[in-house]
Structure formats: C-alpha cells, structure tokens
Amino acid sequence: MQGVEVVGLYVRDQDEALAFYVGKLGFRVHTDVKNGDYRWVTVQHPDQPSFQLGLFYPGAPMLDSATAETLRALVAKGAMPPLVLTVDDCRAAYAKMNAHGVEFTQEPVDRFGTVDAGFRDPSGNGWKMIQARRRAGGAE
Amino acid sequence: MFPHSLTSRRVVSASHTKQDPELLRRLLRAKDRMDAASHEQWPVRRLARVSGVSEAHFARSFKQAFGVPPHRYLLTRRVERAKTLLRDTDLSITEIAFETGWASLGTFGRTFRDITGENPGAIRASERATATGLGSVPPCFLSAAHRPDLTIAVSEKRRRVAGPRIPANETTETEV
After folding, report:
1. What value of ipTM does the predicted structure carry?
2. Would you state the pLDDT for residue A133?
3. Contacts B19 to A, Cβ<8 Å
4. CB within 8 A of B42, min separation 6: which ones?
5. Whole-angstrom Cα distance, residue B172 to residue A116?
6. For residue A7, which of A67, A51, A47 has the smallest C-alpha distance?
7. Distance of alpha carbon B12 from alpha carbon B24, whole angstroms
8. How close B135 comes to chain A (CA, Å)?
9. Inter-chain contact B21–A73, Cβ cutoff 8 Å?
10. pLDDT value at residue B50
C-alpha cells in the first residue's frame, strides 16, 4: 500500500502530548526513540494501522532557536492547521473524553447531516471531531 | 551581488517583546470561549478570569497576541454568526440581532454595516445566491473563512466614513 505514513504535530511537551493522545484519546505509542536531544515520537490509532501521528517538539537540532520560539508561540495561539478526527459516535466520544478532562471548545452539534464537536490538545492544536456519515449505499 | 538588500534591510524593533507560550495558550482559551458563546457578554473581567491574568494584563496581552482587542474580536465573531444565520435560516433580522448577542437592532445594523459594508438584508440575498456545495467542508473552517477581517476599530471606521458628525469619544465596542 502506498500513501501518507506520518504526519506530525508540534507539541509543547512530548510527555504531556503522549499522556493526552494515548491516555485520553485512545491512541497507542508506535515509535518513541531518542537520539541525543532529538526525540521521535509517533502514535497510532488502533483502527488505522497504516497511519502515524507524529508528536514533535519544535527545537534543536532540527530548528534554530528563533524559529523554534516562533513556532511554539504559534502552536500556543492555535494557529496550526486544522485536524479532523473521525468517530462512530460523536456524543459518546465527547462524553468519554470530557470525563477524561479533554478541553472541548465546542460541544457536539447536529449539522450537515452529522454531528461534530471541537477540542484542543494541551499544546493548543485544534481538532474537529466529526461523526462518520453513514452512506446509504453502504459503499464504506 | 545584491546591493539593494543592504539599503532595504529593516531594523527590527526591540520594543516588541516576545510573549510566553504558556500565557498565549491561556489567552487562546479566552478566545475559544468567545468563539463558543459569542452571543454572551464578555467583559474583560470574565475573559481575564478564563486566562488567569489581571484585567489590564489580559487586554494588552490579547491584543499583542491576536492583533485586535478582545471586544473587537468578539464583534467579528458575532457578525460572522449573523451572516451564517442570514444565509442558513429564515429568522428575521431582528431575531438574528438578539440571537447573536446585540442589545438593540440599531446597534446590530450599524455594526454589521461598519464591518461588512452592507446591510444585513443585502448580505442575506447575496450569500444565498452564492452558497452552494460547501457541505463537505467542516463548518468551523468554513466559518473561519467567512470571518470578517477587522483591521481598524469599528468606531474609527464609522468616523472615517461619517466625518466630523460622530464625536470621537463614541465607541460601539462598549455597547456590546
């Protein structure tokens, strides 16, 4: 199979991000390796074994300190690109995650024939959580 | 090789102090709360409490972080929501004004015109004429794309249009 294997997020703290994505969102650790100051961390959703979500810290040795500082500010301001999590049941996922202390920015809302909610990770990355549409033809 | 770059190099102002990402994250929380309930009243006291900073510090920090004062940000969100309701519902303009958090129809209409340059009724007609095929874009991203771009104060904008008729101390922002 060909396609995208890893897409990464910038996070302010990789341990905190792991606790969030694994402990609260139900991902599992795929890779967690260190090379000097550099730490490569990816997590994977149990239902999606072909894809890894990278949890990367913007800093040395990949970035100079000025660039890293700018990126950390942008992440904290919620300026990173949109992320979408698809779930079978948005309200059930909301209830579970809310009980885990996930910071929701929008409670589940019915619209466009589905249900969506919004949350942020501890770093400020914003996620939309959208209930998968059931296709009438059963194409999925 | 590029002599022009020597003369065009700008001196970066040292007065623009960097903001702590931890503070920015807490300011984002206040911005998120306004996004989630823009129809509610958001005095600086309430926002500062969400961010866990003093009121004076909050207003200054928010503007530095996001480029607009918090109350002006709130106005853009209300107008954005009003535009959505004008497009997607059959609510009357009066109903939409109250639904989106304005205390009076007059203030709503005036602020709406100041920000969008059009009347609510005209926007309703033009939005409906062009709104097609957007159902597959997640709504939050759609609404961000429709967010009015406020670069100057609403009161300032009105002053510029109206000339000397409106006294300089009138501020729409404090009414909402």
Report:
1. 0.92
2. 86
3. 73
4. B33, B34, B70, B71, B74
5. 34
6. A51
7. 22
8. 6
9. yes
10. 97
Query: What's the confidence (pLDDT) of residue A134?
Result: 74
Of A77, A105, A116, the CB nearest to B139: A116
Tell me, what's the pLDDT at A96?
97
The nearest alpha carbon in chain B to A66 belongs to B18
Q: A102 touching B, CB under 8 A?
A: no
Q: Answer yes or no: do A76 and B139 touch at CB < 8 A.
A: no
Q: C-alpha angle A10/A40/A59, rounded to 5°?
A: 50
Any chain A CB within 8 A of the CB of B35? yes
Q: Where are the alpha helices (DSSP H) in A1-140?
A: 14-23, 65-76, 90-99
- Tell whether the torsion through CA atoms of B74, A80, B59 and B46 is positive or negative: positive
Do B39 and B110 touch, CB atoms closer than 8 A? no
Average pLDDT of adjacent 10-residue blocks, chain B of 176 residues = 44 62 98 96 97 96 96 95 92 95 93 92 84 61 64 56 45 42
Question: Residue A98: helix, strand or coil by DSSP?
Answer: helix
